[in-house]
Amino acid sequence: MSKPIKEMIIRDIRAGLGDRKDLLILDVSQMTAFSQNQLRLDMAKKGYTFLGVKNSLARLALKESGFHSLDGILEGPTTLVWGGEDIVGLSREISAWASKVDKASIKGGVVDGEGVGPDAVETISKGPSRLELIGQIAGLVLSPGARLAGALLGPGGKVAGAITTLSEKSEEGGDAA
Questions:
Q1: Which end of the chain is more exposed for a tag (fewer CB within 10 A), N or C?
Q2: Whole-angstrom Cα distance, residue 66 to residue 33?
Q3: What mean pLDDT value characterizes the chain?
C-alpha cells in the first residue's frame, strides 16, 4: 500500500472519529459473513460505525487522535467500533452481540483516550449510561428541596387550616380569641 493511500486511510479514520474519546476494538474474523453483515446492519441502525482496519494504520490514526495505551489490544484482526450516545450504550450492544455469537470477541476499548481490556468493557456495559447518571444526579440535587417543601407543607398546612378556621369564625361574628 502506498504512503498516500495510507495517509488517506488514517485521515478518514480520524475524520470518522471526530472528537470522540471512546471506542471499542473487536475481533469478528471468526464470524460468518452473514453474522458480520447482520451485526453491521443492526448497529448502523443504532448509529454505530464499524471499520475493519490494519493494526498499523489504526495505531497511527488513534495515536494522532489522542488515544493511548493500545499496544496489547491492537494485535491480530481488528475492527474499530464507535458511535452512539456514550461508551456504556455501545458496550451494552456489543456485549450482547458477543454473548449471542460465540465467535465474536471484544479485544478491548478506549475510554476517555485510555485503553481498557475486555473485562473493563464488560464492567462498563453493566454500569449506568450517561443519561441515567444525569437522572440520578438530578434526583439527588432535587431531593433536599423536595424534603424541605414537604416539611414546610406539613406544618404549614396545619397553620393555614387553623388561620382559615379562625377567619371563618370571625366572619360569622364569633370572637376568634
A1: C
A2: 32
A3: 80
Lookup: cell for 84: 452512539
Distance CA 155, CA 58 (A): 65
φ, ψ at 128 (rounded to 5°): -75, 150
Q: In which band, very low, low, confident or very high, does the pLDDT at 70 lie, cut at 50, 70 and 90?
A: confident
How far out from the chain centre does Cα 107 lie? 19
- Got the DSSP string for 11-65? HHHHHHHTT---EEEEE-TTS-HHHHHHHHHHHHHTTEEEEE--HHHHHHHHHHT
For residue 144, what are the CA distances in angstroms to 1, 8, 31?
62, 55, 52
Sequence length of the chain is 177
**Cα–Cα–Cα angle for 80, 83, 89, rounded to 5 degrees:** 105
Cell of 77: 484482526
